[in-house]
Amino acid sequence: MSPKATILRKAEFNPKIKTYILWYGVLLCTFSVVLIPLIPLWLLFASIYLNRYFERLECELTTRSLRFKKGYIFQTERTIPLDKIQDLTFKEGPLLKYFGLSVLKIETAGNTGQGTSDLSLIGIIDASEFRSMVFEQRDKVTDNTASTSSSENTDPGIEILKDIRDTLARIEVKLSSNTDQ
Predict the structure, then answer these.
(1) 64 domain-assigned
(2) CATH number assigned to the domain comprising residue 98
(3) Could you tell me the pTM of the whole model?
(4) Is the confidence at residue 153, as pLDDT, over 60?
């Protein structure tokens, strides 16, 4: 049984996320024109919701995975094994830059859609440092997995290949003896 994963770093989130999401909602309502009358309701209820949402944001880098929790009404918890992470991408738009935020997109080996990410983390403080730590730990995990699997699988793998070779040789002998008759 493998040892329990230890937490290497807990990501901290910038409180400006609340303001960013609030104004992002206002902009969406404004651009859709039909939803403009809902802006006062959005401003009233979103600020209450966003405070509780922010309190529940968590992201932890462990020795084996990246764990993320979010949500107030609808809660989401994702655990992504480090050896499945393909890429971590930064994204900044005009509104994000204005608030001094960035989005860290995590793409994994089993990613389903082109241009989509498995997880998006908005507003991590020192996101570039966090990204570097994830990559370093991922490299450690994949190096350990590769060295462990190559040392463990060498002998059984070779034995199976030898059995296949011997079986093919016997089949070849039988086929050649049948064609000679």
Answers:
(1) yes
(2) 2.30.29.30
(3) 0.70
(4) no
